[in-house]
Each structure stands twice: as C-alpha cells, then as structure tokens.
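Appendix C: a fully annotated inverse folding record. The material below is reproduced so that readers can follow the format used throughout the book. The structure is listed first as tokens, followed by the designed sequence.
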C-alpha cells in the first residue's frame, strides 16, 4: 500500500490546485443557479424536468416511484431518487436540488483534475480541471432537473477508477475496484444506454491492464454490482408492471422518435398523441410496439436510417445549441468557441499519446454515447456528460519540460 507521504492524492501540492479548481467551478455554478432562480423561480422548462420532479414528488408523497399518468418505469430510478431528497420541500426543494447539482458539477472539475494529474502530470491536470470548471454547458445544465450533471460525475469517476484498476501495481487497488463497482451500478441506474459503454469498458479493461488477473477480477466485481442493481430493478418492475423490465419503458419511444415519419434527427414526441393504436396498450406493451415499429422502418429503408444517423451526429456535436431560443447571443457563441477549442485540444492531446490507457478510457464513453445518439435522437444535451471526458483528454496536450507523463508524475509533485 502507498504511504500517505507517497500518495499523489493526499499530498498538499496535489490537493491545493484541485481545491482551487473545485471552488472556482462551484462559484460559477451557484451564481448561475441563483441568478436563474431570481428570474424564473421554480419553473421547469422541459418535459423531462417535469417528469423527473413528478417521479420524486410521488415517491415522497405516496411511496411510489410513478409518474402522474401512472408509468412505473418511465425512467431509471437513480436521478429521481436524488431529487426525492428535496421533493418534500416544495419549490424550495427545486432550488436545493439545483444547488446540489452545482456541487456535483464542481466535483466533476475536481475529479478531472485529480485523474489527469495522476495519468499525465500536474499541469495537464490543472488544465483539465479548469476546462471542466468553466464549461458553459456544464454550468447551464446545473439549473435543469435533468440527469446530465449527475451522469457526468458518474462517467468521470467510473472512468478514473477503471484507469486506476488498469494501472495499479497494488496500492489503492481495492479502493479503485470499489469505486469502479459503485460507478458501474450508478451508471446503469441512471441511464439504460450506459450498459453499452460499461460492457465495452469492462471487456477492454483486462486487455489493457498491467496486471490482467487483477483487472479481470475488478471488471467482474463491477459487472456483478451493476447486474445486481438491474436485477433488483427488474424484480420491482415485475411486481408493479407484471413484466421483468430490466431498464426503462422509454427505449421504444425514443427509438421510434428517431425514425418516425417526418423525423429530422431531433426529438418530438407529439406523435404519441396522434397514434390511436397506442391507447389500449399498457406501458410495457406500448414500449414493445414502438420498438418493433422503429426496427421495421429501419429495415424497410436503411438508407434513410443512415442519413438520419449523420444528421443526429451533427446535432449532437453542433457547437451551437439546436434549440432556436438558445442559438444566438454571447452565451451561444461562447459555448461554440469552448466546444471547438476543447475538441481541438483533445485531438492534439490524444496525438501526443502520453498514456494510452488513460486516453482509451477517456475517449471510450465519447465514442459509445455518440453512436447511441446516432441510433436514437441527436441533441447537444446528450454530449454534456461527454465534455468532461474531452476536457480530460485535452489536458494531455500540456506536459511541462522535464515533467514525465504517467502515474509517477503525480507522485513526484
């Protein structure tokens, strides 16, 4: 085991810049949340925000995680459970939930700084942390009751723990495996599509690790933790819905949304009110019907599906928001500039190949979730949790003269 004096995490020189980065990130996010609260109060702008808050309120009030229209598996439970901690406080709870997300967003900057510091070096870690701290989209989404901010932290922590498992020679391995297992479980309980990334990550981990047996054990532990949570959720859904729904009943809706007649790559679920054939179906049946209908449309016109995939990719990585209300003004252009700069730095940092394991694990979620967006619907929203990973890769562009890359760099600081 590493002694406290040797640990790259516990020494004062390592903590000092991390604390400053977290503090700066927190100040930005809290200021934004309070400004928005002063202007709009507890108003919820998007349908998904209202759905998440419904789930949390109904859980606190009635003890049931269901939407107002009776759906029991409309979303995965982790984020509504987070909101449930505040739902009993009414409108004040909305403010506290947003401030809590400001704290989670600030934690992302700290995790990115610490991870990149260990993998590449102190200056690289500082750059990565600063980029995450000032990310305009990361700041903006703290004020929305959507799971992007929470999922950003889950992705970062899980990826950092996977890197530690892949590179550890013994010290800190148990903590890394525990973090990887907790992150895997949290990811699955937050977003169903996380299973694709986790599967790829855990299969890849033993192949890139220094000690393959230990990495295999860590990957197996994480897989079991995620599977146990999914099984428990499926058992709960079996009891409430009469079907062992392992994820959510939103997958078919979203897939059809991306391939419906008139699809343009974005999301518009108004079609649900225009399909009388869905009315006699229950929640599970509707999801299955829409899933089958979407696959049928893809098989009938694969060329259209490919064209839509390209449009969705462009929408997901558009420097400027796709929503008309946010496409102009200083905020839109600053967000565009930030996105382009981070993307350029991430590519340049990757070209330097300072730590191949680090870069693989940083880029893996970006690639997987981008492909998921191409299959379902495209939105700037879906890249928000990926930006901290790109910021981490961007940090690798900076290595001071005489500063070695890799885990040892952090120890010598």
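Designed amino acids, in order:
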């Amino acid at each position: 085991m590493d002694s406290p004096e040797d640990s790259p995490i516990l020494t004062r020189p390592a903590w000092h810049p991390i604390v400053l980065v977290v503090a700066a990130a927190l100040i930005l996010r809290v200021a934004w949340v309070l400004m928005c609260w002063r202007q709009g109060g507890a108003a919820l702008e998007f349908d998904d925000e209202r759905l998440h808050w419904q789930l949390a309120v109904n859980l606190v009030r009635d003890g049931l995680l269901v939407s107002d229209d009776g759906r029991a598996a409309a979303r995965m439970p982790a984020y509504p459970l987070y909101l449930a901690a505040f739902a009993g406080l009414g409108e004040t709870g909305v403010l506290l939930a947003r401030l809590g997300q400001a704290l989670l967003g600030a934690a992302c900057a700290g995790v990115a700084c610490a991870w990149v510091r260990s993998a590449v070096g102190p200056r690289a870690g500082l750059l990565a942390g600063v980029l995450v701290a000032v990310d305009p989209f990361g700041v903006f989404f703290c004020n929305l009751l959507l799971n992007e901010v929470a999922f950003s932290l889950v992705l970062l922590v899980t990826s950092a723990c996977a890197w530690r498992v892949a590179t550890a020679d013994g010290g800190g391995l148990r903590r890394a495996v525990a973090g990887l297992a907790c992150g895997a479980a949290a990811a699955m309980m937050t977003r169903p599509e996380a299973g694709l990334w986790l599967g790829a990550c855990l299969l890849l981990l033993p192949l890139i690790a220094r000690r393959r047996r230990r990495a295999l054990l860590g990957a197996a532990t994480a897989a079991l933790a995620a599977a146990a949570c999914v099984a428990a959720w499926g058992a709960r859904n079996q009891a409430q819905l009469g079907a062992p729904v392992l994820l959510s009943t939103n997958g078919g809706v979203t897939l059809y949304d991306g391939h419906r007649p008139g699809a343009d790559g974005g999301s518009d679920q108004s079609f649900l009110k225009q399909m009388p054939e869905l009315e006699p179906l229950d929640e599970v049946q509707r999801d299955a019907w829409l899933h089958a209908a979407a696959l049928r449309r893809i098989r009938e016109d694969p060329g259209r599906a490919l064209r839509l995939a390209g449009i969705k990719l462009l929408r997901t990585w558009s420097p400027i928001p796709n929503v008309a209300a946010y496409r102009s003004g200083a905020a839109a252009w600053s967000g565009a500039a930030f996105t382009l700069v981070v993307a350029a730095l991430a590519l340049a940092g990757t070209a330097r190949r300072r730590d191949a394991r680090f870069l693989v694990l940083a880029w893996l979620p970006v690639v997987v979730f981008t492909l998921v967006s191409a299959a379902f619907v495209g939105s700037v929203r879906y890249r928000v949790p990926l930006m901290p990973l790109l910021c981490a890769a961007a940090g690798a562009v900076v290595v001071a003269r005489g500063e070695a890359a890799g885990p040892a760099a952090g120890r010598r600081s």
